[in-house]
Structure formats: structure tokens, C-alpha cells
Amino acid sequence: xxxxxxxxxxxxxxxxxxxxxxxxxxxxxxxxxxxxxxxxxxxxxxxxxxxxxxxxxxxxxxxxxxxxxxxxxxxxxxxxxxxxxxxxxxxxxxxxxxxxxxxxxxxxxxxxxxxxxxxxxxxxxxxxxxxxxxxxxxxxxxxxxxxxxxxxxxxxxxxxxxxxxxxxxxxxxxxxxxxxxxxxxxxxxxxxxxxxxxxxxxxxxxxxxxxxxxxxxxxxxxxxxxxxxxxxxxxxxxxxxxxxxxxxxxxxxxxxxxxxxxxxxxxxxxxxxxxxxxxxxxxxxxxxxxxxxxxxxxxxxxxxxxxxxxxxxxxxxxxxxxxxxxxxxxxxxxxxxxxxxxxxxxxxxxxxxxxxxxxxxxxxxxxxxxxxxxxxxxxxxxxxxxxxxxxxxxxxxxxxxxxxxxxxxxxxxxxxxxxxxxxxxxxxxxxxxxxxxxxxxxxxxxxxxxxxxxxxxxxxxxxxxxxxxxxxxxxxxxxxxxxx
Length: 484
Hints:
The chain is α/β, with parallel strands linked by helices and about 475 residues long. The protein folds into three domains: about 5-125, 3-Layer(aba) Sandwich (Rossmann fold); about 135-210, no CATH class; about 230-470, Orthogonal Bundle (Hypothetical protein af1432), CATH 1.10.3210. The protein is built from 22 helices and ten strands. The strands form three sheets. The protein has a five-stranded parallel beta sheet with strand order 2-1-3-4-5, sandwiched between helices.
């Protein structure tokens, strides 16, 4: 069943353009041009969302918003505002003011229809997405298409999970900029068709358009929660499934920016990370043997998240809030690299000249700049991002902080970040990377010794490791208690 939306705007030309756009996306639209008619429509029908210009007449958009919050408090309302020339900034009806008034979302003109689409999708549940896709009675035909490679993203065919019916078109790649659509949105997921491409044609990857990343992440985040809660499923499958979700989430973040609905998805993933590290009893076995470590930046951020939160699990002061906060910070810890020169962002630190290194060392500050004004991200997350390259001995950056002046969680992320670089850059299994880390004694001074111990405890019995490896003289074991 198509999701119903109510479009309210004084500009009839815009209304009809919006109607055409959203009906192509399978929404059912109702159009009104004033506030009074909007209230009548709400009385007569139920809508998934109301998209309303704040400046409509015969009951303003703000008056209608108040009416909705009083009578239909669960109604999604996306308010549209316009910057008025000659009006002081503090007197403008800003996006922030409309959100404080109770709007679910707000957006200022001018904007692209795709921006509005993103806001609507951000509040769809998995059930909404599945129910709004029209079922096809038979599989759609395979179609060759010419689309640029930059429009697509990929997932391994053996790791592709989706709903019945599929939420978006699925492709295989023939060559550069040339694809075959093998499943249409609304098709039943055909195991036979996938097996044909996997087994007969040796296809390793499936492709879908980046515009559908939100749907992929939304469904797979939901699916990951179910799998992580299932005690019969092993840790390795849980770790891999969450990796797929996290990588596509980060790709979406770098593609679309830190939109509110993306932050919300990040928080959902952080909750799943908490469930994974606190409920999976066999993680230490997984870490010893796990080897599917793609060297890309998205995998890096996920692994830093996984090891940082696993380290925190070993501390007495651990909590659900602390683990989820750190997980969110880890997902975004390198977000500041978006502001670096692309060539510098891709380089290894050892290959940089002095000028490039100076620019690279600004990325924690750039990261803070990108998220600092975001009310959905708390100060602890911001401080972890800013300090994730500070060293316990004062040799880090950007501010050469030392000791207790560095947030403990930041130093944990610093250790996990460097540990994951050993795994990825030197192509080591995690347990081998641990031995490399412990052998580099001059670098152990970068971290609080208790954090190093807790990384060791992620893998093996700490009593055994103390017999075989040198630990700092002030080392003391920390008992592993359950999260409260």
C-alpha cells in the first residue's frame, strides 16, 4: 500500500511538480494550498507525513503545526520555510525554530526534491518501506543499462540480505559504466536467479544505486538487531553482518553528509554494537581468527568501533551509554578527512611530506567543525573525535595533550585506531597485530597502561599474556564485570 503524504503550499506550480515527483516514488499525494484545507484533510484521512510551507494563508503553517501537535501528536510533519529578505536573522522563521515548535523535520528553500525525499525516507520504518513497494506478479525482465560507476555501490553476493519483495533495483556489472538490472524493486528475491549468477557466471558482487543506500542500511540494521539478539547465531556471522551495515552507513554519510536521519541511523548501529560486544560470549575466538579486513576507510572505522567498544567492555566502569557513545564517535572519528585535499586523505602518513602532514593533523579539528553545531551529537562524542590522536605521553596531535588531560575514551579510540592500522596496513590477523603492538615498546607510552591491558584481555587470558610479554611496571589487571 502506497504511503500517503499531504502536500501544503501556496505555490500551485510547486505542488503539482512535487506530486509528479513523489508519485513516481510510489507515494500517494493529496494537495492543498491553505492551512484550513490542510486541517480538513487531516480530519478526513490518515497520512504518513505532512509536508507544509510555514507561510500558507487562511491558517498559517505554524498555526496548523500547533493544531497537529495538539490533535495528532504522532503525525510526521516536515515544515518548509523561506528566508525573507530584509528581516533580521533572529526574526526569521528558521529551521531550528520550527523544530522547537514541534516539526519532525524542517527545510529551507531553495532545496532539491531529493533533499525532501531523504527527510521522508528518514522516518519510514522497515514495515513502511516493505508495505509501500508494489508486489510484482512475476520477475521483471533483465535489462542492460548505461549508468556511471559513480552512481553505484556494491555488496558481496553471499552477504546480500534484503526483504521480500526487494526494496530497490539490483544489478550486476558487465564492465565500466555498463550494468544489467537482474531484480526490480518489488520482485520476490529469487534464490534461483542469484545462484545462477553466483555459480554459473562467477559473479562476486551485486550492485545498487547510492540513492538507495538509506533503504539498504535501514533494512540491514533492523536485520542485524534480530541476528545479534539470536543466541544460536555465532559471533563471526554477527560481526560480519554488522560490518556490512556499518560500511554502507559510513559510505552513505560521506555521500550525503551528517543529516539528522543519518545521525539516527548511526545511533541505531551504536546500539547494535553494544548488544554485540556485551552479549556475544565467543567474540575473543572471532577476533583471533577473523581475517576479512578490507583496507578501505569504511572498514577501518568499523574495526575501530569494534575494538574500542570491546576494550571498554573490560573496564569496571563500563555502561550501555558509554559504549554506545564511543561507538558513535568511532563511526565518525575520521569524518574530518572530508575537508582534506582528496590526495592527502588517501595517502599513508609515512608517505606525506611536511606540508601534507601538517594538513593531515588538522582532521580532528575539521571533524569537530563538521559536527560541533549538531544538537543530535553530544559533547563526549565531539571530544573523542577531537582527541582521538592525542597520546598519553604528550606526543600526539592536534594539541599535544597528555595524561589525565586526555579523555580516557579518546585514548581508547587512539589505541584501537593504531591497532587497526597494523591489522590493515601490515595485513596481520588481529592476534598477530597484538604481538606487533606489544613489541613496539616506545609506542606503548602513547596509551594509558590499563587500556593496553584491556586490549590484551579482548583476546586471551591476561594471566598468560603477563608471563609471555613485557607490560608496563604500573600495570594492574581490571576485573571484567557485566554491564549494569
